[in-house]
Amino acid sequence: MRLAGSEWRSFFDSMEREAWRLETLPVYSVPQEAAAIAEFAESGLIDPAAVKPWADRLKGYASTGRTVGRVHVVRRPLTEYLRFEFAHYRHNVAAGEDVRVLDITGRPNPLAAAPDFWIFDQDRVVLMQYEADGTQIGREVYEGDVTPFLEWRRTALEESVPFEEYVKGIGT
User: Fold this and answer.
1) Homologous superfamily of 5-170 in CATH?
2) Gap between the Cα atoms of 10 and 4, Å rounded
3) Could you report the per-residue pLDDT of 60-116, keeping only the tens digit for each?
């Protein structure tokens, strides 16, 4: 089943305990972010209003005891897109999201076989589908055994560090 628009929002919001994301790409090409990325490249700043909707959702989830987390697999030097995304992560963390980074610079990627995905309540997986340039082409509810996704999640959490710890270490 493909998810888009309000279906995706409803699926996401129906989580009972947690939502967790694995991000593996150095660039996510989102047309509606183009102007914000260009502005960030010039100023190093993001518009606080741009992060407010997600921050408000995170706070809403937290108020009902639900959690959201993610691990982003990165390699240095960080892309301009990752620097832009990291600026957003600062706000996500402040709103309660558990953002972590797995830096694979100079070492094998323990998640090389893993796709981008969300896992909800450790039993429902949505595959995030992208073109090679990072353009999203779909979200597909995965109908098979979730065991590999739970293993990728476990590995990602074991191998990553909290976002704030990571950025202190690289000086961004």
Assistant:
1) Endonuclease Chain A (3.30.870.10)
2) 10
3) 999 999 999 999 999 999 999 999 999 999 999 999 999 999 999 999 999 999 999
